[in-house]
Task: structure prediction
Amino acid sequence: MTGLVGTRALVRLAMRRDRILLPVWLAVFVGMAASSAAAGVDLYPTVQSRVLAAMSLNGTQTLVALYGRIYDPTSIGGIAMIKLGGIGAVFVAVLAILIVVRHTRAEEEAGRLELVGSTVVGRYAPLTAALLVALGLNLALAVLTAFGLIAAGLPADGSFAFGLAWAGVGIAFAAIAGVTAQLTRSARAAAGIASAVLGFVYVLRAIGDTAGRTGPRWLTWLSPIGWGQQFRPYAGNRWWVLLITVGFTVAVAAGAYALLARRDLGAGLVPDRPGPAMAAPSLRSPLALAWRLQRGGLLGWAAAFLLLGLVFGNIASSIGDFVSTPETRDFITKLGGEKGLVDAYIRICLSMIGLTASAYGVQAAMRLRSEETGFRAESILATATGRIRWAWSHVFVAILGTTLLIVVAGAGAGLAHGAQVHDMGEGFGVFGGALAQVPAACVLTGIVVAAFGLAPRLVAAGWVALVAFVLLGELGPLFGFDQWVMNVSPFTHVPKIPGAELTVTPLLMLIAVTALLITVGLVGFRRRDVG
Amino acid sequence: MDTAIEVAGLQKSFGRTRALDGLDLAVAAGEVHGFLGPNGAGKTTTIRILLGLPRADLGTARLLGGDPWRDVAELHRRLAYVQGDVALWPNLTGGEVIDLLGKLRGGFDPKRRANLLERFDLDPTKKGRAYSKGNRQKVALIAALASDVELLILDEPTEGLDPLMEAVFRECIQEEREQGRTVLLASHILAEVEALCDRVTIIRAGRAVESGSLADLRHLTRTSISAELTGPVSGLAELSGVHDLQVDGSRVRCQVEPDHLDQVLQRLSSAGLRSLVSQPPTLEELFMRHYEDDVAGEGSASTAGSGSP
Result:
């Protein structure tokens, strides 16, 4: 087939471009799975403790909606991997979407595919190469994850089933991204549509999983995420489910090829609508431009954060239902009471919100670098706009956006929790706890800005720092890291609200650190060469 | 003020590649100045230094009487710049970009904007990602030409424009000249420079090799002569200033240095002229001569090849 000429070369090109990205992602996923498994083995040493935890989780509708069901309460793998089976699979899907869009529509949008397309490369080669890279990545992920889980002490057959369940979600979304990459001209939009599909199918399985005997349980079976869970690793290992995933993937990929055959290079199927012929009077400053470029993305994030906050707030008060036996209830009360348990859960949720909001800040601040390397910053800097003013515009949007997301999620969580316990005072406490996350989350934006000013090639340091802080927070307590190691993460210094007293000093310190990082970055940017 | 741009001994290296190697450039206020050189000669790097984007390692640069690195905001209010390969924001329309850049430069003329949109035949409602290369170029050109500025810095502005639009562009530059604006036009399209520019600077491997008015520069080069004679001619080869002599029976072809033209013509007419064609040197020949030297001189071209970032 001449349409596939050059696929091998493009696969090699993609592997060359992603030679750091792919191994790092694989390591993060495998490390996440293995450490979660190891933690589960420690936490639930006896069958009784597993059954207790599994039954209470299965009995809490909101948790089932969030994570899914545990199908074999006695198995250690079931309880240890419940979070990663659903939410972890979402990250696997996100990676697959990013990889496929990166090597198809993003290349096309940048015009590089045109360069490649004019050489001896078939029409279908770029899509095929992207799908092959995604397939290879997911197969490697399946095998390595299985080894990691086995090493952590989980049964071998279930571990392979878990790895394949993840890989199945990954290849299904690689195919979906293959389709969305054909639809629009913009890579951002292609990734956005695929992510929206991901959110939708996650909700489908949430409805299906929580449905009663007569309810729409079949909805789970419409969702690639649902298939991953219905594989039932450590609970029967239903290998045949893989056939559904493979069939779906093949069908969707065929759809992507059909769409590709019908369109021109560079074009989308959804035509661009014409926009205004004149700029709005307000579009007159670098800040207005930064806002215009980032507002769409920010509104999407804000909607997701509101939803997240509402879900967390809703679950919080029912967390006490977990502990249904008198003995454990007594044990928990001794540790700080049921109220203490609810507070601890809320704090975990709020710190997740803080971490995710900081990820927004990282990618928003990295716009500085992509505007610079894309030569769009040059257009602005050649006008009467000073460098600091231009850079500050994107920094401001990053800080404002991070803050806004936390406020929105905190308000959602506070309202939902307050309504559940019929005490808006408590809800207000949750909101306050969310606000306490803001300074720590903004430190990440500061790290990106500092890197942008001093060592612009290393601007991805923001992501590295974020992953490091997440791992510190997750693994630090488990492995008993020294306090000075833990202190490296800004999230260590967030006051434990609700529950503890508000201490202002650490918050002021975090704000000072952020201000220092941003100042260093801006001064560095003013002194260095642009471009 | 008489000098719009004054650059002396400019040096700039990117890692181990030396992009500029002691470059000199002088542009008088009110002139259209051609900035010629092969790809990678350092044109874009020079322009970017003039815009204060990178900083020169050595040498001095003055722009509109100010320091391009220090006085960014004041200077940029008085100039407009068009990149060689214009990058637009994918989700902003062409019209929005024109307005935004105009406002950020400190003002533009709405009437001129409308007029330019019509002449360049640009649809301002399309999104940045939907424009072709030529149309992206038009967006940046209209934004620059509609701005109320003293100096236009244009880096290969007609790349991607069709011949019709190139003609519109030339008209616009003529108008700018009549308005007394200064234009620095970097290009490797010699016909364009020849048609538009008062003075020209030719650079090669990060150095200016020639600078002056077109008349001055032509003076430095040879006129090509092609003649048909009635009788035999002798002694042409002995004359100094004659190159590439070909005598084929009664036909004679040669290249003659300007100062020796008179002698050669006398010798030819004494032999009896049947026909005579004399061609003035084109800028292209001038350019090629330096370029050939460069290829012959070996090495320096390849180091400058990857000069611009």
